[in-house]
Design brief:
CATH class: Alpha Beta
Largest sheet: 3 strands, mixed
Number of domains: 1
Family: Belongs to the DDAH family.
Strand content: 15-25%
Order of helices and strands: EHEEEHEEEHEHEEEEEHEHE
Shape: globular
Number of helices: 6
CATH superfamily: L-arginine/glycine Amidinotransferase, Chain A
Protein name: N(G),N(G)-dimethylarginine dimethylaminohydrolase
CATH topology: L-arginine/glycine Amidinotransferase, Chain A
Helix content: 10-25%
Distance between the termini: 23 Å
GO molecular function, one term: amino acid binding
InterPro entries: DDAH-like (IPR033199)
Keywords: Hydrolase
Bound molecules: citrulline
Structural class: alpha/beta
Length: about 260
């Protein structure tokens, strides 16, 4: 089992994008709409950024997109593979305007870029990297053309792209992510077929599926999944939690709010 790649401490940087004014209008697919508290969301976003900074991650703000309700979910707009940024091709029409700002941010950092384009669609939330294996959700947002285009970019760079059907969750990473040692973790009711993963550790809560790997011993996750946090602690990990309830109401999770770059 390959570990999840973590940049060296001197290279730890993460893109973030502050919430839009109309965050509450964000798309919903699998859950009912409940009232989003804009002020609380902004406080929670600052708490998320502060948690990254406290763990030694410099945060870099992508230019805000105040009229694009889902723009805070920056993970969907650009995906990092080592030193390469791949600009996504969002599967939802209302999210297509998000990529320009994300691309400008990586361009300012001098990061080389490749693009995915229509008719291929692919959201960053459907991409889970575990060592040189890249699992890609085939979902409502990501189609076969998008997956093939990503494979075309990554195969020459030594990555293996594995397509994974996702029908019970918005994105692959709504259903599964991976611990620093490469163990894939997921909430079974959201996972079509756990056997596609080399390893699979079931977690007991829907919000316990998403972890951001901060270093090889530390993960960041939602405070809404205490049983899952306990499971990771038992495996020797230090768990940092953040309350992101207002983003969870919009089918967002802890991974969606940042993109780690090196
Ligand atoms: C959407 O439906 O696109 C947003 N409301 C939520 C996106 C969450 N992003 C992610 O899981 N990577």
């Amino acid at each position: 089992m390959e570990p999840v790649a973590v940049p060296q401490p001197s290279q730890r940087r993460a893109l973030v994008r502050r919430p839009a004014r109309n965050l509450a209008d964000g798309l919903l697919t699998h859950i009912e709409r409940t009232a989003v508290d804009q002020a609380l969301a902004e406080t929670q976003w600052r708490g998320y950024v502060a948690a990254l900074e406290a763990e030694g991650w410099e945060t870099i703000e992508v230019e805000p997109a105040p009229e694009l309700p889902d723009s805070v979910f920056i993970e969907d707009a650009v995906i990092m593979f080592g030193d390469l940024a791949v600009v996504a091709s969002p599967g939802a029409e209302t999210r297509r305007g998000e990529t320009a700002g994300a691309e400008a941010a990586v361009a300012r950092l001098g990061i080389p870029r490749q693009h995915l384009d229509l008719p291929g669609t692919l959201d960053g939330g459907d991409v889970l990297k575990v060592g040189r294996t890249v699992y890609v959700g085939r979902s409502l947002r990501t189609n076969d053309e998008g997956i093939e285009a990503l494979r075309g970019i990554l195969a020459p760079r030594g990555y293996t792209v594995v397509a994974v059907s996702i029908s019970r969750a918005l994105h692959l990473k709504t259903a599964v992510t991976a611990l620093p040692d490469g163990t894939v973790i997921g909430f079974p009711p959201l996972v079509d077929d756990p056997s596609v993963f080399e390893t699979f550790l079931p977690v007991p809560e829907a919000h316990g599926t998403a972890v951001v790997v901060l270093d090889d011993r530390t993960v960041l996750m939602s405070s809404a999944a205490p049983l899952s946090a306990g499971l990771f602690a038992q495996r020797g990990y230090r768990v940092v939690t953040v309350d992101i309830s207002e983003f969870e109401k919009l089918e967002g999770c802890v991974t969606c709010l940042s993109v780690r770059v090196r």
